[in-house]
Amino acid sequence: MAAPIALDEYPIHQTPLSLGRVGSSDRNFYDRCYFNAHDRAGGTLLITGLGVYPNLGVVDAYAALRRGDDQRVVRFSDALTERSLEQRVGGYHIEVLEPLRRLRIVCEHEDLGFDLTWTGAFPAVQEEPHLLLSGNRVVIDSSRFVQVGTWSGTIRADGIESAVDPVGWTGNRDRSWGIRGVGEPEPPGRNASEPPGGLWWLYVPLRFDDFSIVVIVQEGPDGHRTLNNAVRVWPDGRVEQLGWPRVRIEYRSGTRVPVAARMEMTDAGGEPLTVDIRVHTGIGLHMGCGYGRDPEWVHGQWRGRDWSLSSRFDLADPAVAARFGDGAVDHVGQARCGDAEGWGLFEHALLGRHAPTGFTEWNTVAP
User: Fold this and answer.
1) Phi, psi at 269, each rounded to 5°
2) What are the C-alpha distances in Å from 226 to residues 204, 230, 243, 358?
3) Contact (Cβ atoms closer than 8 angstroms) between residue 118 and residue 173
4) Helix, strand or coil for residue 75?
5) How many whole angstroms separate alpha carbon 290 and alpha carbon 216?
6) What are 172-195's pLDDT values in tens digits?
7) Within a 10 A sphere around the Cβ of 225, how many other Cβ atoms?
8) pTM recorded for the entire structure
9) Three state DSSP letters for 91-151
């Protein structure tokens, strides 16, 4: 699949092609922006994004803020009716100020709002194509570019407005497009009787003062690696491949929630390069954010015109906390690479079995 105007930061549905022919005729074709912002203390995390689903005729967006044990989420959805350069739905919109360099995101909702400006710190890097099959069916066939940077502006929640300073706030953004499960559930068919054994996923974009590191790894239940992408990006745009990461993750006892990790790689000169990560606060993408098995709302799902919903999750509630590790979770990661300290995203999912880390059954947890 070609990488069309997604790299120019405009919605794929504004091309001259008809809505039903953009990119693919697959019902699950999507084009999505994703952003996260967090303070360097690791205690506050905002994730947000906007998605366009041309073959479903839907555009939607979400925003989630985690402070302490509180995860607040707002969502917007509407009909995709016309081609436009605007990336907007409900009270949410994205303005491209300078392609691949600066943009502004505004969310207007009484429970959670913000006006934030992103500035890229290093050039964007494109990951290897991401392919995942369920039986004979392609369920993921996507491309993505990733970029780290800084944020400035304000965030408002619970009636309190907080300043976001680029000195203390960092994060990453990405743009992905292709085929991914979205919208209303499809008939289960044969795959329901032959479910996958498990999935282990890791997505780690990190910002250091002098470079950025992006690691993306996907493995099956027996540890067979189906996606391997590890690079270091320099300010002048050079992309250095870092080989085959060996990853060790420490999980909180009785859970599948990570608390620390080590990624062992090799630089272009063949020398070892190790990144140690402390895992801080996180947001469950399957808890109101529309990913995976979210029971409240799924990206691309038709909810009628001009729809919105607000939810709150109390992670101090044992029943809510029990759901936290049952899907992909975006954490704040504090990293050390030699003498350099970095911050970024530590996104991890461990679904089902993954023999290399000792999770031998679907319900196995860390000792």
Assistant:
1) -90, 0
2) 16, 13, 14, 19
3) yes
4) strand
5) 21
6) 999 999 999 899 988 877 777 777
7) 12
8) 0.93
9) CEEEEEEECCCEEEEEECCCCEEEEEEEEECCCCEECCCEEEEECCEEEEEEEEEEEEEEE
